[in-house]
Specification:
There is one protein chain. By secondary structure, the protein is mainly alpha-helical. The chain folds into two domains: about 70 residues, Orthogonal Bundle (Arc Repressor Mutant, subunit A); about 140 residues, GntR ligand-binding domain-like (Four Helix Bundle (Hemerythrin (Met), subunit A), Up-down Bundle). The protein has eleven helices and five strands, in the order ααβααβββαααααααβ. A three-stranded antiparallel β-sheet has the order 1-3-2. Helix 3 crosses helix 4 and helix 6 packs antiparallel against helix 7. The longest helix has 25 residues. The radius of gyration is 18 Å and the shape is globular. The two termini are about 30 Å apart.
Length: about 220
């Protein structure tokens, strides 16, 4: 839960964005569910303009699509797209690993260590969404050290979708504590400045996020 003092600093559109994003990521809003500005405005208690701004951000994330015919719809899930996202994510992250391990400084390393601790805290509280958020920030913080700034937004979208797909894979479900612990080897290789080892560990990490064949071809 976000502290009240921090929450007050957020713009209304930020609060709405976080609220709707959580519900999409946790599959409370199912794939291809139609989101209406008026309906969300009534439910959340804000203006349609605020809802519209939040939905535009979610469109940038690839979590919703907006068309003149159907309006705003939660992005569908299917195995082919999930596989392509994981392939792209693997390529981007592993290629950035060597640069990140070589360039990382003490301040960045401390930030990443704090994110790793946040994962343990979220797991202990049974908060899967908070763990998902800390996981995402952990991976992006490592990649950010590579200096490949133009690719960060693409990677962020891939990570969001791999997390979302993972929720649909009950046969590959892990205890939250194990999910958090999977990141220890990544931090160890990064802290050791071992770019080759980090790339190999990241590749294995991404390959074992979810078994694509263990879930239906499409989720609607």
């Amino acid at each position: 839960m976000m502290p009240s003092k921090v929450r007050k600093l957020l713009r209304p559109a930020d609060v709405v964005y976080d609220h709707v994003k959580r519900r999409i990521m946790m599959n409370e809003f199912k794939p291809e569910f139609v989101l209406t500005e008026l309906g969300l405005a009534h439910e959340i208690g804000c203006s349609q303009g605020t809802i519209r701004e939040a939905l535009l951000r979610l469109q940038e994330d690839g979590l919703v699509t907006r068309t003149a015919r159907r309006g705003t719809v939660v992005t569908r899930l299917n195995a082919e797209e999930a596989q392509e996202m994981l392939v792209l994510r693997r390529m981007i992250e592993t290629r950035g690993a060597a640069k990140a391990a070589r360039k990382i400084d003490k301040t960045q390393l401390a930030e990443i260590a704090a994110l790793r601790e946040r994962m343990d805290e979220a797991a202990a509280q049974g908060d899967e969404y908070a763990l998902m958020q800390a996981d995402t920030e952990f991976h992006l913080a490592i990649f950010r050290a590579s200096g490949l700034d133009a690719l960060e937004q693409i990677l962020a979208r891939c990570i969001k979708h791999s997390h979302r797909w993972k929720i649909w894979a009950p046969s590959h479900k892990r205890a939250l504590e194990k999910t958090a612990a999977r990141h220890d080897v990544l931090f160890e290789r990064l802290a050791a400045g071992d770019g080759e080892g980090l790339a190999a560990a990241l590749g294995k990490h991404i390959d074992t996020i979810v078994r694509i064949g263990s879930v239906p071809k499409a989720v609607r």
